[in-house]
Amino acid sequence: MSNTNTTDISRRKFLGSAAAATGLTIIPGVMLYEVAQAKPDDMAVTSEVRWGMLIDTRKCSEGCDDCVTACNTENGLTGHDRPETDVQWIRKLKLTDKQTGHVTSLPLMCQHCENPPCVDVCPTGASMKREDGIVLVDRHICIGCRYCMMACPYKARSFAHEVVTDQKVHAPRGKGTVESCTMCVHRVDRDGIPACVEACTKEDHNAMLFGDLNDSNSEISKRLAEFGGKQIRADLGLNTGVRYQGI
Hints:
By secondary structure, the protein is α+β, with helices and mostly antiparallel strands.
């Protein structure tokens, strides 16, 4: 296991599960929650694990948004009837083959790249990648410059234009900061799975699979070895943690 890193630990605590929360003003107009750990995490994550997700679009129905609903509920994301500015951590895309007319429904979220361009352009270090491959935004030091949004080829990040209310203690948020899919890191660090995957499995759609890409015996690795999986914009060489089948 890698040596403990003070910065890494503090960021994990910032995003970890909590028993209580108190208001914390970062700058005027930005209110986040300071998280108090119910169970301290004093061990750094390790690169021995690479968390990833496999999505089979052939099992994903165009009219189903269970994954989106689960994500919004889990992380306290609420809409304001302004789709152009509402925060989205996962969205459903409709892809139509112009020659055949075939329609594919594709869930799109942060792809958790091994070489994330969002991290490269962030001037404060708020955009970061954990050793286990999960890409996050530390909203305590995000200045809202949105460079990461411009750098992301998947348009997977959102800017919080609205005042945030009814926050979840495990998902601190604030107006004027950038957000994206965290792969439900608060669940993963407690040996759980992302809410979107859980919802998809619960409804027996089974279009989403989560696991360790570095473990050849994990179900996700076995599926990829047997059936393969594609990256969106593989030509960019980002080595995404999210792979797709049926595209």
